[in-house]
Design brief:
The complex is a heterotrimer of chains A (about 650), B (about 170) and C (about 100).
Chain A lengths: L3 H18 L5 H28 L11 E10 L5 E8 L1 H24 L6 H19 L4 H19 L6 H32 L4 H4 L13 H20 L8 H4 L5 H10 L4 H8 L1 H7 L1 H22 L5 H21 L17 H31 L15 H15 L5 H16 L1 H26 L15 H17 L4 H4 L13 H22 L5 H9 L1 H8 L4 H46 L8 H20 L1
Antiparallel strand pairs in A: 1-2
Helix pairs in contact in A: 1-2, 1-4, 2-3, 2-4, 3-4, 3-10, 3-15, 3-19, 4-5, 5-6, 6-8, 8-11, 8-13, 10-15, 13-14, 13-18, 14-15, 14-17, 14-18, 15-16, 15-17, 15-19, 16-17, 16-18, 16-19, 17-18, 17-21, 18-21
Chain B lengths: L4 H22 L3 H21 L3 H25 L12 H25 L15 H9 L7 H22 L3
Chain C lengths: L4 H21 L3 H26 L5 H31 L13
The chains are: A mainly alpha (about 650), B mainly alpha (about 170), C mainly alpha (about 100).
Amino acid sequence: MEYTIFIVLLPMLMFLFLGLVGHKLKPIVAGTLGCCSLAIVTILSYITAWEYFTAPRNARGVYETITVFNVQWLHFTDTLHIDLGVLLDPISVMMLIVISTVSLMVHIYSLGYMHGEKGFQRYYAFLSLFTMSMLGLVVATNIFQMYLFWELVGVSSYLLIGFYYPRPAAVSASKKAFIVTRFADLGFLIGILIFGYYVGSYTFATVGASTGFASANIVGVAKVMLPLALGLMFIGGAGKSAMFPLHIWLPDAMEGPTPVSALIHAATMVVAGVYLVARMFPLFVVYAPDVLHIVAYVGVFTAFFAAAIACAQSDIKRVLAFSTISQIAFMMVAVGVCTRVGYGTEAFNEEGGLGFMASMFHLFTHAMFKACLFLCAGAIIHTIGSNEMKFMGGLRKYMPITHIAFLICCLAISGIPPFSGFFSKDEILTACFKFNPVIGWMMAAIAGMTAFYMFRLYYGIFWGKEAEHDHTPHEAPAAMTIPLIFLSAVTLVAGFIPFGHFISADGHEFTSHLEMSTAITSVAIAVFSIALATLFYAKEKQPIPDALGRKLKNLHTAAYHRFYIDEVYQFVTHKIIFGCIATPIAWFDHNVVDGFFNFLAWGTHETSFSIRGFQSGRVQQYTYVFLVGVLIIVVASLL
Amino acid sequence: MDITLQQVVFYVVAVLIMIFSVMTVTTKHMLRSATYLLIVLFSTAMLYFILDYTFLGAAQIIVYAGGIVVLYVFSILLTRSDKNLNAHLNKSKVAAAAITAIAGGAIMLFCILSHGFVAQVVPTGDDELSMEVIGQALMGGGKYQYLLPFEAVSMLLLACMIGGIVIARKK
Amino acid sequence: MDIHIEYYLIVSTVMLVAGIYGFLTRKNILAMLISVELILNATDINFAVFNRYLFPSHLEGHFFALFGIAIAAAETAVAIAIMINIYRNVSSIETKDIEEMKH
């Protein structure tokens, strides 16, 4: 398994190469190089997955956690050290597949989408950087390595969101993304430090943070501090995964190019938070179940909040962004509703631990169909030239491939069988109902809202009244449609993967079976929502939504403005932090600290001015001083 | 009264020196300052004669009074300066200089007078210094003899001659 | 021959003080140089007197004074040469006109 190091190394080398000499290459050469390296990475990931999952399970009945490569980087004590290495375990291998597949699709797609853009080579360099960071994050052997690559992912996101840097909106969006996630990462870092101090090790394999059983030697004070540490780490994850109230950066991050949105803000970076919780899952479920439930509640609220806002947006990328927030929240809820019921027995995977498998399954399927949705949106934006729904409508005649791909993915996200989304969402709902029926019904309702707004979007783009166009819209070029076809194909079949065989809460394989009651309920809600959306939005004239819009005008405006959370943040930062904290400190720094040094300089200046007279050039004055000095010495020696 | 001629001459010369040296530095005419200097130098030569250092006195007259004062007079005449040397003189500067100088002098007098010199008068039996002794000492290379300083001074004079010519020549 | 040694020393002290005063207060460079001559002269008298009264069999003071005269002459010559040069450049031999130093 030595070749797995190349999975991380190859994109890094490609980043360095394209970053340093890319601008000298022709754009198409740089793009092809990027795609080739990523194709190699994808093949390597598939080979790794194949070898890993076909290898026999170990004595405990779980897939062996393989540390392929581990280099000690910083040594604190014998047990506490920061390493860099590659760890293979079921969830990291699954993530390798997801990341490399989606990244390869985005690379190929960008050949067409970014054709002719200034900075084409820089774009591919940053894409390689991002891929490298994300791959490094998921194969991290210890928490600090994960943190390191976490930050790298944040940087790549900043660079890519701000890709169109001449536009001020893009610049401020990239800053916002970076600052909000960085702020959350403070919690992550404090959590890591507390964790390392009390538990005594950062390495995942030692603390039992890869799938398996949690380490039993966390006792005493560590046991008390561990929920705090894990809760703080979750805050970091919440920032990266755009949970309320740290979600504000994700809609603005849509200022970046659409393939970037597909890669980073739909499929990979935003799931880093979910991945973190999944990675620490054994510790969460044994030592900090309450924190896990807090994760679930935050997820439920975020899912509802984001779904409500998505119903009122007119920019197609914003709708997809809020949909992403909502779906990530689904994943967080899934892993958050896990309990210790059945822990240590065979039934854990079907009882308390079902949510873990559901969350990972949904991560996998969501990555595929959300990336596909974003890429379709990109194709539409590419041909229409604007993100707003009012410039679209009736596009099904002009863009058949995009239309079919979009429809498949919308059906998947709504949870209609046999598409993949149905299976994963069903698992989540089952887990929720096991935990608490209230949560279960709430999530089911939110799933219905999901179907509603996605089909509102679908009808708004592909049906309805056609808008005026300067030139007739055309289908996207082959480079862009091939990824769409591939991802839709995956969405069609992924639902049938027996996920429980590979990934489960305690590592043993199990076959999840469809619980009929939940399945029928969720399908019914989805079909009802789709019908509602069809009724409202499928025709050219839309009397019902217009009437509702007038009646519920305030609610609609609030939802359109994302419930004014951004304004609250602006208020807090400008009035409170800048006004009350930053300004006095700045005054202090400017007047007292600088003033002290200015005073020293002034003092020196004044002193030098006053003794300047000694160097007058008048010989008689020199003689006089000399004489006085001599007399003083004489008198002193006489006395 | 037991005053010898030598004492009378000494007192006259001493008074001359003291008065005229003060006048040298306080007069407002440049040329008068040089003249008073001349008188002071002559009086100093007289002092050397009283001390029986005839060669020194002669050298003093020849070099100092004859050479240096002439040099000064020539350069005074060659350069123009303020008619009144004492105009624009800062009162405070004068006062400070005077006080310092007089203080210095007072300290020196105190040191001299409180030292208690053992020999108060010229020891008897010593005649005037003969030229032969001076010549032998000046040209001799022995322990208390001054050949080396003599040659050094001649080098110095050569250097100063050359230096003077180089500095003051017309470009 | 009973002129006390102190009388000679008082005379030379007065000449010295006058020379110092003149050096500190005179505006004309030549006047300053004249004051320097006074100071040198005073020290020559001192040397001669000490030699005559305290060390009658030796000659150090005598020769020191002799060489002092020679050196004073040389120094005066060079000083006046310099002063002539200054006068050519600045057209003045006031001390206040040669105060400017290199920046």
